[in-house]
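Appendix B. One record, verbatim.
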Amino acid sequence: MERMQAILCNNGSFILPHNELFKMPSSLKLFWELESLGSVSPAVICCMGILAIPGRRENWKLLLAKWLQAYPETRRHLLQQLTAEFLEPVVSWMSENSASKPDLTGSHVDMTDGSVQNMVQTFCRLFKAVGPSGSEVSSDDVKKCFIFSCIWAFGGNLRSQYKTQFSLWWRERFRTTCILPNEQQIWDYYIDNETWQFLRWSDNVPPPSAPCGRGITALAFVHTIESEQLLYLTTLLSDAGHPVMLVGEASSGKSAVLSEYLHAHSSGDVADVLRLKVQVNRATSPRVLWESLFHKLEWHHGTLFTPVKKKRLICLLDDLHLAQVDTHGSQPACELLRQLLDCGGGFDPVSLEWRLVRNITFLAAVDVNVPANAPKPSARLLRHFSLLPCSYPSFDDQYRIFSTLMNVHFLQSSPALKTRDTSSTMPAALRDLLSPVTCVTIEIQDRLRTMFLGTPQRSHYLFTLRDLGKIFRNLCLSLTMSSSAEALLYLWRHECDWVFGHRMASNVDYRRYQQEFGAAVKKAFIDEEQVNTGYRLAVSTIQLVCRLTRNLLAPHDVAHTMLCGEGCPGIAVPVARLAAHLCGFSVVHVLSPATAGDRSVQSQLADCCIQAGIQVPDEGMNSTGESALEFFVHRVTQNLRCLFVCPTTGSHFSQNCLEFQAFTNRVNMYLLPHWSRPRLVEHALHYVGRLETLGEKDKENISYLLASMHLSVCKHDCDGGGMGCFGHLTNGTFETFTQTFVRLFERRRDELMMQHHDINKTLEKLTGTLKASAELQEASRREQVVVEEHRHGVTQMLLQIGQDKAVAEQQVRAVRRHMSQIRKIRELLPKYQLALDRSVYKCTAMVSDVKKLVAEIDINALGKLLTWHIVIIKYG
């Protein structure tokens, strides 16, 4: 918008993103076509001239006049007369009744100028497709084709409750000029292209072609009058190259009708039609849609691309209303489709180059209940399509569809295949039950559809044909023609409870479902006890595992499951892993965007599809890209099963259910709410019953105590709503709480038993110790005397030892004195030795001196001296 403003306000000049000034030539003029000026700024509006083209009721006449110009003058005059005679009164009746009946038509658009133009355009296309082209055709035949095209182009858009009124008006208004048979209503006839006669639709309904005794396959299709009408009109318009859009409520058969048309026109090896089915969802962007188309196209010349092998491509866009919504509230994929239909080509979303496409016919299926956050299909897109309403099948059509499928499987016979009589091999009771079981199932769903109105708490209450298909397909999956009537009733009641009952959001809704089930049973079964075979629904973990196991082993289109409710946390993941293990599936846990980190949910799902689809193909298999892709998709549908867990059922859950009704309708949805008090007591009693030390009354009291504690916490935490402030008040928490209580009880009991055992052992030891103590006391008394005697002897010995010690101490002191003397002697010994040496020396000297003296002594003189000496002595 800013660039447009720069172009208009700056004389066609503006600056490119790389800072280059670009000026548009003066010869270039801009014509801008807008549906509304609501998103255009005033600055842009002031720079251009505005031409407003108001919508008028008479604009359809311009379209009709252009259509008449394509015929020669002779034929044109006849068509103008027929237009004035039939077409204009029909348009007037539609316009008058739309004012008082807002729900008159079953299409997306109301009775405005756009819807009238679309009906006129559909009339022109139908007449051209069914009408005679040669000039030799009579005017009566042209009138028949005109009447048939007029009836189905205008009256075909009416809802079922208004078609009878329109038929009566038609008979009364054109009493003299209408050439339709008078036996039935005007809707009961179609025109034969060969004889140009009106024939009954009922005579043209083909018999079913499903294989006998093989259950209900995904491609099983039972033709009804309404489906045959849609197939006939779709074939006429699509074969002429006109896009067709079926509009109706969820699961009314739109996709089945268009898929049957694709299968009928593109089956076989020599078919000149290629088929492409795009399942539109919130991730379908223009790039995704463009890449899907270009996988089937090849370059022809220049910018022109055509389908491969020069065939015609039929592209089915299922759930077109679910295309990706951008930040501006529009759907770019739908705008790309509109551009392809408007201009015969479009800009490549990747390279932004213009590409022309040819020989492509688009089919679309759109739900009338468009989500609140998604825009309704624009009139600019719808004007290219021929809108055909697909109403929800009536009770008779539903009965025809499912009774035929049940008979083909159990009786192994059909109107087209009457090869043998199975009455002798099939139990009569089982054969008689097929019709009432089918009637009651359909009536129950009709009652539930009208009983439960749309509320935020019941946003997932979508009771459609898919639910009936799940019930009957599971019956055919498990039972054969040799099964007993009791097995059929057991399984039928079981399937109804799981498909209908487990979806109920409250116990009140579940009781209402049971009442409706009982009322429907009383009408079809004479003996009500025949159905009440003692089966009692119990939402236990084991039964949930069994149900998930059954779903995982079912065909791909009915095998996906969603567990929702506050009872999921702590239970859903272990139960899913156990069920997958029992079925031989490996589990891949796809993390939510909040915990996945850098990996998106799309990338994780892509990895799962790759793991499920990888397998080496057979040697004889064609290895082309298309066959390889079909083989990969077939492997994914065989090996991939999805189980979704939604722990809350608040406003966000309700909003998603309303926004993605196609997803909600395709999965098996089981609600796991908070357990009631009886259910809590039952689960608690399951674990407390293992306590053998307690009586039955004590076990029951403890179970009620645990349930009351859990309910009390739930009541005071966020007023008992949801899972509490911290998201921890769930059924899994109660089971963990009960298991923990039982473990603590058993552990405490084991501890007390061990303590009791230890006390008994201690008492036994004490008894033995007392006996030993008495013996020891007697022995101690005897030993006491011995000890006294020993003490006396020891005392004497101690006294003797004391005396000996005193003597020893005296001897020690004496020894110490001697040792002291010895040490002193040893100290004086060198001196004594020196003194001795000196004395010896002196003595030697003295001896030497004496010897000298002796040698010098005069013996005589000595004698005299001696004499004197003696005399002195005597006289002395």
